[in-house]
Each structure stands twice: as structure tokens, then as C-alpha cells.
Design goal:
mainly alpha, hpI Integrase, Chain A, two-stranded antiparallel sheet, 2 strands, 55% helix, cell division, DNA integration
């Protein structure tokens, strides 16, 4: 009589999956992902003639390094490491091992995606198109003010749509912004942005019903002011009219444009950090990577030796 074929995961791996299913109620897709990750690790152990009960930290590090050498995406490698950590934690809890070698593993660094970028020409096209809405002068004035303020300040979209009325403090050259965590910051406002707000002020009443509104960009909706979602949709429509892919345009992309264009023109990184309201300068430094990537792309496209 033929003996039943043993699972490639071994009895401890199968017990771990049973626990995930019974105690955590994971869906089939999630269980399949854990099984695939553990099967891959089991192959590593088999090749080295090792077992989950006795494998050490050096072998685990070799396995994780092999994931990187194989070109596995950082997110996938991180998921496999998470599966290993949970598996070995389970073995300790079940008394199969007295130590947890996976607890000493370093997580693989996840590559940070570079933000989407609009060129200065594309931003100009959006502004031209916004001003060209002659049949809807109130909408044209509001859109122009939104774009000018966002591009001049790099505000988060939630900060932009919730600006108070009147927006200026003691000095009209600056906006006082209350950002994340209630922290206030002073953001300079360009002359075109100040003028756009002044031009829009005469049309502001068109977006108010009933009593006066405390918001710079009021709305008749529940929030009382223009929502992030509505502004995002207005930008998409404007991009189509300007001949720009709508997938390329969003309020956050204009915030990226503000930062990257400032740095391209020689602005100080610390100053840009303060204007964006970033707590950590490493968050702001992503824009220097954007500029470097753009330079490299320009060289590849236009330098005569690059084509060779």
C-alpha cells in the first residue's frame, strides 16, 4: 500500500497554516500566499539539509539575501519575511523551539516610489485653461485661485480647501497654515496667488447659500467648503481640456510640482521642508531624487553618446 505523500511544508508548516485558518480566520487567498512563502523557504532548507527545528540565524540571513539577489520586489521580500517571523513565533509558542531566530532578521528596505511630476509648462497650461472658462466666470475665478494658491504654497489638499475667510493675516504676503498635529507654519504667498484670491473674492458669494461662510472656498455641501474629492475631479476635467493625461494630475501632484520646481530653481531644502510642513527632512529629500532621475532621463534621451 502506498504511503501518503508528505506535504513539502512538513507537519509544523501545516500546523501553522491550520492555526491561521482556525484562529485568525484568514481567507483562502491569504492562506495561499502564506503557503507559497513557506514552500519557498522550505526549498531553501531542503537544499541545505536543514530543518525548521534547528535552522539558525545565518541560514535565515542567507535566505533573505537570496531574495534580494534574485531581484524579488522589496514588498514581496518583506511579505516573505513577515511569514517567516510569524512561523517561527508560532514554533516558539508551541514549544517546538526555545529560540526565535527570525526575530533577529533585518527587514529588507522598501524602495520609495518617486512622486509624479508635472513640468512648469504643464502647470502653465492648466492655469491658462482655468482662466479660459469664460462661460463660467465664477468657476474660472475659483479654479484659478485654487491652482495659484496650491502651486504657490504646496499646501496639502486638506489644508487648501479648508482655508478660512479672509485668508490673510496681518501680512497679506503670508498664509498661516494649521497643518498635521495642529502645528502652525507660515507660508509665503506669491503676487499672482494674492491677485487670484482678490479676483475670486467677488465671485465667492456664488458658492454660498444662506448665511455667510467662514471658508475661502465655500460649498453648499455638508462640509460647508469645497471637498478634496470635488477639487480632484475639477483638476482631472481641467487636465483633459489642457491636453494632459488626467492620470497625471491631482492636487498632490501639484504639491510635488511646487517642491520640485522650487528646488530646480535653487531653493534651500530646509526652506522647502518648512513650507511643506514635513517633520523629517528625509521626506523632502525625495524631490532631490526626482530631479536627479529627471536629469538622467534627459541625458539618456538627448546626449549623442547615450544612444550608443
Amino acid at each position: 500500500m502506498a504511503r501518503p505523500q508528505q506535504s513539502p511544508l512538513g507537519r509544523h508548516g501545516e500546523a501553522f497554516l491550520e492555526m491561521l485558518s482556525a484562529e485568525r480566520g484568514l481567507a483562502k487567498n491569504s492562506l495561499d500566499a502564506y503557503q507559497n512563502d513557506l514552500t519557498d523557504f522550505t526549498g531553501h532548507l531542503t537544499a541545505r539539509k536543514e530543518t525548521p527545528e534547528r535552522v539558525g540565524i545565518d541560514s535565515l540571513r542567507l535566505y533573505v539575501q537570496g531574495l534580494a539577489d534574485a531581484g524579488l520586489k522589496p514588498a514581496t521580500a518583506a511579505r516573505r519575511l513577515s511569514a517567516l517571523r510569524q512561523f517561527f513565533r508560532f514554533m516558539v509558542q508551541e514549544g517546538i523551539r526555545s529560540d526565535d531566530p527570525a526575530a533577529l532578521l533585518d527587514a529588507p528596505k522598501r524602495g520609495r516610489p518617486l512622486p509624479k511630476l508635472l513640468s512648469e509648462t504643464e502647470v502653465d497650461r492648466l492655469l491658462v485653461e482655468a482662466r479660459a472658462l469664460r462661460e463660467e466666470p465664477a468657476e474660472a475665478a475659483r479654479l484659478t485661485a485654487l491652482l495659484e494658491v496650491l502651486y504657490a504654497t504646496g499646501l496639502r489638499v486638506s489644508e487648501l480647501v479648508s482655508l478660512r475667510w479672509p485668508p490673510f493675516g496681518d501680512d497679506p504676503r503670508f498664509l498661516v497654515i494649521r497643518g498635521k498635529g495642529g502645528k502652525e507654519r507660515l507660508v509665503p504667498l506669491s503676487e499672482p496667488a494674492r491677485q487670484a484670491i482678490t479676483d475670486y473674492a467677488g465671485w465667492r458669494g456664488d458658492f454660498i447659500s444662506g448665511k455667510a461662510s467662514p471658508w475661502l472656498f465655500p460649498s453648499r455641501g455638508e462640509s460647508g467648503h469645497l471637498t478634496r474629492q470635488r477639487f480632484g475631479q475639477l483638476l482631472k476635467d481641467l487636465a483633459v481640456a489642457a491636453g494632459i493625461s488626467p492620470a497625471k494630475v491631482s492636487p498632490h501632484v501639484l504639491r510635488h510640482a511646487f517642491a520640485s520646481h522650487l528646488l530646480a530653481h535653487g531653493a534651500d531644502l530646509r526652506a522647502v521642508q518648512k513650507m511643506l510642513g514635513h517633520a523629517d527632512i528625509s521626506t523632502t529629500q525625495i524631490y532631490t531624487h526626482v530631479l536627479e532621475a529627471r536629469k538622467q532621463a534627459l541625458v539618456r534621451q538627448h546626449h549623442p553618446l547615450a544612444k550608443g
